[in-house]
Design brief:
heterodimer, A: 252 residues, alpha/beta, six-stranded mixed β-sheet, four-stranded antiparallel β-sheet, 10 strands, B: 279 residues, mainly alpha, two-stranded antiparallel ribbon, 76% helix, 1% strand
Chain lengths: 252, 279
């Protein structure tokens, strides 16, 4: 049996007057992939960003409810946002290598958290690039600029950069939407490997992708979590008419 | 048929407009070069002016320009970039203080240099009793170039992709780490552009400096000494009819100096981009 890694409890998010999320409750299982699907503007990305407190960057955002990581609450004045973001890493939609070398990109997180020893950094960089299936392609040009890599390579570099700070949970916000089919296949393969060690929550527009890689799926609509269940249940035997309409392509 | 003629005619007009810029630049530089090259040699650069500029070279005014410009940059760059960082990275939108700072720097940018000169004269030279000096001149120039440095740094910081900041923060970096390690390095080419523009203004400034740094031809020994800059020297040589050949020689020195500074700035930026940053 799997254990629960994160729990979202009665999450309500407001952007000024607009309520983006209504009473979201979700258990995120350890070492599994949880996919969040739904049409644009349904709140799935907003929900993802409540899990590492990134919503707070947007002025006028109010978040109610609580999220637990291993039973520790992450919201509250005494909680350490920086420590949280080390434990809960994030990969964004647009592959975004920093304008520095491949090596410096991966070493960025560890350095920010105080790692200075060259040998340790070398070690982390190598391990992270290997874990992100990028080492073989870049090991002979670690010092060259990262933005010369292709989009797919950059996205795996971003994943290596996240792995380098040794997270427990990895959030992915439509990580394949800017990639070609071959890069997407490589990324999905990587996600399947990563769940051995990490808990993954992924937002995707691509229903086939959700079906292929996820163990649990949550369907969001207009700020509500309509249905949350094992992926095969959602796709084969959805309980809610709206879920069925969406996954069969009747809207969205 | 008519459209074709119109198309060709307009293309020719635009081409003419564009070539006019090149012609004007070449004409100005070429003329200065021709008139100035007669006196321009190593001796002209390395010797002090004699008889009020009638004889000798431009060593002291050249040092005057270097000192006042360097002083202005050292003062204005940290303040300007600091202001830009505050406004773009820390201040909330619709923050009243940020609004006032923005408005102020826009207004400052539009004030003619002679007005800064008068202010510098009354405030630095007289009220703070700094006298006609390199320090009064530098501080006046600093106020003058501050808006340019601030505005261009703001633009450059604003142009840094939001994704960089989000990625950095999501890796657990603090706000300051994100600003200092990601945002500022990415914004450096834009910031450099502002600094180059400012150097051009500072080196070419005359009116504000006559009022604040004076026009002494003595060798400045400290920041408290008065100094004549190249532009002031050029103005006086030409205006008082002291020596037209030397005025053109001085003009040539100013042009060469600015071209060198631009080239150096471009070179250092290319070097930085080869090391993997800023592409």
């Amino acid at each position: 049996m799997n254990t629960i890694k994160m729990v979202a409890e009665n999450i309500n998010v407001f952007y000024k007057e607009f309520q983006a999320l209504h009473d979201i409750n979700m258990d995120i299982q350890k070492n599994l992939v949880t996919a969040l699907i739904g049409p644009s503007g349904c709140g799935k990305s907003t929900f993802l960003r409540t899990l590492n407190r990134l919503n707070e960057l947007i002025e006028g955002t109010v978040i109610k409810g609580q999220v637990y990581l291993d039973e520790r609450p992450i919201y509250g004045k005494t909680q350490d946002v920086i420590a949280l973001r080390r434990d809960v890493g994030m990969v964004f939609q647009k592959p975004s290598a920093f304008p520095m070398s491949i090596y410096d990109n991966v070493a960025y997180g560890p350095r920010v958290h105080g790692m200075k020893n060259k040998a340790n950094l070398d070690d982390v960089v190598e391990k992270s690039l290997k874990a992100a299936n990028l080492w073989d392609e870049v090991h002979d040009r670690l010092k060259s600029p990262a933005n010369r890599l292709s989009g797919g390579q950059q996205q795996r570099l971003v994943i290596a950069r996240v792995l380098a700070v040794d997270p427990e949970v990895i959030l992915m916000d439509e990580p394949a939407s800017a990639l070609d089919p071959i890069s997407t296949a490589k990324l999905e393969e990587l996600i399947r490997e990563l769940k051995q060690r990490y808990t993954i929550v992924i937002v995707t527009h691509n229903m086939q992708q959700a079906a292929r890689i996820s163990d649990f799926t949550g369907f969001f609509l207009n700020g509500y979590l309509v249905e949350f269940n094992r992926t095969e249940e959602i796709f084969i035997n959805p309980a809610d008419k709206r879920t069925e309409d969406y996954i069969t392509g009747r809207f969205g | 048929m008519y459209n074709d003629i119109e198309e060709k005619g307009l293309t020719a007009l635009y081409w003419l407009a564009a070539s006019l810029i090149v012609i004007i630049l070449l004409a100005v530089i070429g003329y200065i070069f021709m008139r100035g090259i007669g006196v321009f040699n190593l001796d002209f650069i390395l010797s002090k002016p004699g008889a009020g500029g009638k004889t000798g070279g431009i060593l002291t005014p050249m040092l005057g320009t270097l000192y006042t410009t360097a002083g202005a940059l050292l003062t204005a760059i940290p303040i300007g970039i600091g202001t830009a960082i505050y406004l773009e990275e820390y201040a909330h939108r619709r923050n009243v203080f940020a609004y006032i700072v923005n408005l102020t720097s826009e207004t400052l940018a539009g004030i003619p240099s002679i007005v800064y000169g008068l202010f510098g004269f009354v405030f630095f030279v007289l009220y703070l009793d700094l006298g006609w000096s390199i320090i009064s001149g530098s501080l006046t120039l600093a106020i003058m170039i501050l808006p340019t440095i601030t505005r261009t740094a703001q633009e450059a910081i604003l142009a840094v992709p939001r994704e960089y900041r989000e990625n950095s923060l999501a890796l657990g970096a603090s706000r300051w780490q994100t600003v200092s390690k990601i945002v500022i390095p990415s914004a450096i080419p834009g910031i450099m552009t502002g600094i180059i523009l400012s150097i051009g203004r500072a080196v070419g400034e005359t009116a504000a400096l006559i009022l604040t740094a004076g026009s002494s031809l003595g060798m400045p020994g400290s920041l408290a000494d008065p100094a004549r800059t190249l532009s002031v020297h050029l103005y006086i040589l030409a205006m008082e009819g002291i020596s037209m050949p030397r005025a053109f020689g001085t003009a040539l020195a100013i042009v060469i100096m600015i071209l060198m500074i631009n080239y150096l700035a471009g070179w250092s930026m290319r070097r930085l981009s080869r090391s993997g940053r800023f592409e």
